[in-house]
Amino acid sequence: MDFLQDLGKVALGSRLRRLGEVFAVDAARLYEMYGVDIHPKWFPVFYLLSRQGECSITTMSKSIGCSHPVVSQVVKEMAKAGLIKTGKSSEDARVNVVKLSTAGKALIPNMEVQVQDVFEAMDVLLRQMRHDFWEALEEMESLLGERSFLERVVERRKLRESRQVEIVEYSDEYHEDFKRLNYEWIRHHFKVEREDYEILEDPHGKILEPGGAILLALYENAVVGTCALLKKDSKTFELVKMTVSTGMRGRSIGWKLGCAALEKARSLGAAKAVVESNTKLKPAISLYRKLGFERGTAQHSPYERCNIQMEINL
Amino acid sequence: MDFLQDLGKVALGSRLRRLGEVFAVDAARLYEMYGVDIHPKWFPVFYLLSRQGECSITTMSKSIGCSHPVVSQVVKEMAKAGLIKTGKSSEDARVNVVKLSTAGKALIPNMEVQVQDVFEAMDVLLRQMRHDFWEALEEMESLLGERSFLERVVERRKLRESRQVEIVEYSDEYHEDFKRLNYEWIRHHFKVEREDYEILEDPHGKILEPGGAILLALYENAVVGTCALLKKDSKTFELVKMTVSTGMRGRSIGWKLGCAALEKARSLGAAKAVVESNTKLKPAISLYRKLGFERGTAQHSPYERCNIQMEINL
DNA sequence: TATATATATGTAGCCAACTACGTAACTTAA
DNA sequence: TTAAGTTACGTAGTTGGCTACATATATATA
Prior knowledge:
The first copy, chain A, is α+β, with helices and mostly antiparallel strands. Chain A has helices at residues 2-7, 12-33, 43-52, 57-64, 68-80, 102-106, 108-128, 133-146, 149-163, 175-189, 194-201, 203-208, 253-267, 282-291; strands at residues 54-56, 84-88, 96-100, 166-169, 213-219, 222-233, 236-244, 272-277, 294-295, 308-313.
């Protein structure tokens, strides 16, 4: 058992299942003890029928919350044991109407006594606890209902990965990646324009030498995002070539790149930064807004694809 | 789902298991997502080996807390998948020393990242809760460790049954039951003596007519216990023929009979009641003590089997 | 030393859940 | 009214756990 201890909270699932098993084992003994001579797995069906009178297979599987083959199987077994009578419905020949036989009904009183005792024992047990186990269980179920555990883990993963993302300055070794990522996203959404080609093929001549900058996001030594600052005039830079590789989106890499770029612009003496985009690109617009950009006065853009201009005072 | 609602706390077991399942399903997706290309059920073995280096089958089954065939099976499957190397121990040719292969070890980094993320997600989830689910779980486990759920239900049952036990005065219709129960217990522990025979065959002449009384415990209209008051003198009664049927012990029936008998003695004007027994009969002695009897001065008893005399002032 | 018992493992088979798929019956739309 | 889709149910096969039993080896005891 040191193992569960060791794994601790990671093994909560197994732990819950195991605790459930403990109850199940005891339950099996109880049926015997109370003279309710049924297989434990029959109980849900039996109980349901004792309450509802008659049910179809599907109705039962839905209210019990298990697959219909299980119910079908159980009904077959119980019929063989003489506890159940089945028959076709007169209204819909597909449905199998199931009800308790006389022998089955004869078990009801014992079963009710058993349920009563089990209920009381559980009630006493729960009231004896310092923690409200029942409420805690409900809360856990409801939280997992809002967002599954899987989603929660994925979120942690993205967080961890984003922490491992590093922003670095451009150097020639990144030229291929810089081109690849940008051509990819442009081709995916629009088409490559003359301006794109010129910049991507000659980042040195078109961005760096005129006094701009290029930043790259690295994750595990691979380039997963790019962003550049184009110098417009002594006090103004334009944010361009901002992209994050498809597999790494949702990890705040755009945010990191954006922050780093604005920081860089400030250090280069900028008073204002602008960015052009397309209203189709919702996530991009929303990122720029989060970074502090606001819708600016529309100006002539060299790109066909741009229909919105945003700016920020630094 | 109305079913679980309806059954409420009675179905706690299923509910726990189901919640455990939810985690298990998500876990299965996670292995894939993290590139830990293993069957979910392999995880415990894999994790253990990644920590311990090498283990035997039994060691693993013990620390994981599952049966050894499962481990044996998993090891076979993992070996087939090339993740594990096995070999006989040099010290003990029975033990199968299991360790990760190079391919298996290659998965460790991914697995560790996964465990880390899962741990954090769980930690966040638990800290987000108003109730302390983790503590509640521990408390529940510890309570069930002290006394199993089965025992708790049995206790409720006894309580319920004892509430249904009724104490009535003797009448001739009970003669057979009175005799049967008493002969049974005497024969079981000792042997029937002349005195027993006389009283049991003629309760009217030996008990009632001299001014004594007989009380019976009824459960579902069946006699499940007896007790009589023998008049010794105007102020003293002796408690005799106190017995409870074997199947109904542990339901405080003796206590009920005893209380009723003392009450009856008082109403008959007694100032003192005595009882004779044998020190071998621990439960009987302890019952008398609980009723208020204290060890009295030993007197001559007509029964061979008696070696202790107790009395109480009413 | 011979024998009895304990231990480590593997094999076979059971069990209760599941999914996948086929069939029959009903419902809807052309 | 016919075709297409939906629903109810059963069957078959999978899975992950279990227990029971068989086998080989170790250890303890007469």
